Amino acid sequence: QVYLAESGGGLVQAGDSVRLSCAISGRTANLYAVGWFRQVSGKERDFVAATTWVTDATYYADFVKGRFAISLDNTKNTLSLQMNSLKSEDAATYYCAAAANTEGYDYWGQGTQVTVSP
Question: What's the CA gap between 106 and 2, in Å, rounded?
Answer without folding.
Answer: 9
